[in-house]
């Protein structure tokens, strides 16, 4: 730092447009001290965004994040992070480039992913980048993935540096960068911050702040979300700006008058590194004007360089264990298998009426616009290069994956209709294939022409002529499986109603495949024939079509009628969060294992009996619901996911799943955003996603409300209106400082035995 002038310090946190695009964000070097430039932005959400460095060594891509979340499998998420981190380090070691035949954009080690905004609205254009509508599921997914990406060697060097996106409350593309949404303290802490706080238990390097504003304060210049919240989870969290967001500050909602004011707003409110523009070059002017300080500038530079030190950038190449990775580690056979396993567990069976499994040797027609898709099978922010020759020819189509699994049978394919057009010239040929076949796979959905960055969906129904084409196919009375390939949930009301009216119809099944990626065709083929039976559960709610006429995209109040996500939606979904079938059958029975222990922990055991003929896997989910806690002055979720476990059970065998939940799982967010344990009747609901066999257990909490100001400090209100304070023994942070101040004013400390909690007696406040 002492060898950098003020201008050189500014250069370290500002893109240098002369050596690369400002969005990829090169920061200039300083040759006289041996400091080369650094490319910051490497998208690492579904695959490392890199050109293919050699034949058979294009990067490993994974099924889209919703498909990953559908597995409810922590191990799979950790392994995904391991694969992405390993391949990014290997690509960096060999000098690979982000873009084909462009060596001016090397793959460096700052990894931007996972993206964990919630799937708030089914129309959001970037839903394919996101994991789930549930903060607990999304945050757990992110924590596991980050721990794999940031694996440390024996000397403490990180494999890569992971950045979460897009912090926070980003789920509308229209007018992004100049939009602002009213968000209550309740919704902040129950929905829009919760997944990030949970993800930071794995200590990611930092975040990319989002384009949108909350309550008039743009995310990238928002003291509340950056300094007060984010840096309470990690004091040195590194904050980078989404491409061009500093320049956006010169427009609504804050209308900064010039570059210096915009740059100072971002820097002084918590942003460390600019991306997409070079307004930070005006920071010296902002400092002269008294808008920014040298101290804050140096803090941003130090945070930025700490990232490099943790990666081993300034040490000899062989100083870190990760130097061993090379070309052979890119798309390694083990990585391919991990991706394939994830794809198998991503498929969700929504309906199966005497259709699956298909018998091998059957003649099958695969029709619909996704029957022969290749690059359209990938979510946003998959790697840009799928095949070494620059095409997508090496990506198997769904028809090819089904053909490979259909031993002794025949498979024919035709689109019939396009994703989104009124062209009818392919329908007759496709229907002719259906007539000549014994079984039909109907592959429908959308692609990046319908939903993508910068483009929200207008409608959640199947676009173009797909629904009418589907009805024509179903009208031919052949056993059919509908495979939905999409980023956001599709409203298939019309198809369900049409099929429901038919009497004595042929077999019918529905599979949600999300964007299944490179291994999706193989996984689907093996699963359709019952060679694999490893289904997932929905990580989202599939809403009826009329939902979009009842909810404005710009409404960010989660409980505003009819409500958003399974926690608040009051209507009847097409298929609910957590739902999913199997090709085998399970008996499900749960019990409470004894009474709660003195630390207020509750143990439940669920026994699963695979009563079918196939080995299978099941996901058991634990939810909390407030049954009767009296009158409260804020929203209550219908239920909230608290834990989950995935288990494999062989045909005819039994397995036991155990949950140990503490009183923390009974807490609710109150009106001002604090965690509160309310006295009264609570319930733990144990489910495998089927309402008919859910198990519900009630728990009664005695005493007063307990409000959790943070993990170390709790305030309890007594029946006479006085307050008690509880704190963890030995805490020296803000909680302890508040305790000391309260004691000085009006309290008396009283030890509560040898436990970790002590009480501070009644405070007359």
Task: Walk me through the structure.
Residues 618-690 form the Fibronectin type III-like domain. One of its GO terms (molecular function) is alpha-L-arabinofuranosidase activity. InterPro entries: BXL (IPR044993), Fn3-like (IPR026891), GH (IPR017853), Glyco_hydro_3_C (IPR002772), Glyco_hydro_3_C_sf (IPR036881), Glyco_hydro_3_N (IPR001764), Glyco_hydro_3_N_sf (IPR036962), Ig-like_fold (IPR013783). Keywords: Glycosidase, Hydrolase, Signal. The chain is an alpha/beta fold and 765 residues long. It has four domains: 1-38 and 175-311, Glycoside hydrolase, family 3, N-terminal domain (TIM Barrel); 343-568, Glycoside hydrolase family 3 C-terminal domain (Rossmann fold, 3-Layer(aba) Sandwich), CATH 3.40.50; 586-704, Immunoglobulin-like (Sandwich), CATH 2.60.40.10; 709-763, no CATH class. Helix content is 25%, strand content 22%. The strands form eight sheets. Strands 24-25-28-29-30-32-31 form a seven-stranded antiparallel beta sheet. It has a six-stranded mixed beta sheet with strand order 13-18-17-16-14-15, sandwiched between helices. The chain has a five-stranded parallel beta sheet with strand order 3-6-7-9-12, sandwiched between helices. Helix 3 (74-93) packs antiparallel against helix 12. The radius of gyration is 27 Å and the shape is globular. 53% of the residues are buried.
